[in-house]
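Table S2 (text version). Query chain:
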Amino acid sequence: MPRSVNSVASRARRKKILKQAKGFFGRRKNVWTVAKNAVDKAMLYAYRDRKTKKRNFRALWISRINAAARLHGMSYSQFMGKVKANNIDLNRKVLADLAMNHPDAFKAVVDKIK
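Corresponding structure-token output:
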């Protein structure tokens, strides 16, 4: 009985990886073993950096809220403590947006908690 290899599936697997490597530089885009390693590494970076992006944005929001709160004479920690104590349900993303784009609305929040 002849040896049976599923070359259709093998080719499809390789095509899928090479399609993901499209746009890579040099042999990383068209040599199977190099492209496979490059795509594996790229997927790891993508997974890791989806988490890192959340951390970076939270740090940015905290910086913006801190700067705006200090304009009104209080630190970030004092401001957030009073926001929580007064049951104002605005998250850091929204507060940072108010601080940057709607300073009068942010001032209204500050006046409410003082």
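Notes on Table S2: The mean pLDDT is 96. The helical segments are 7-20, 32-71, 76-85, 92-101, 103-113.
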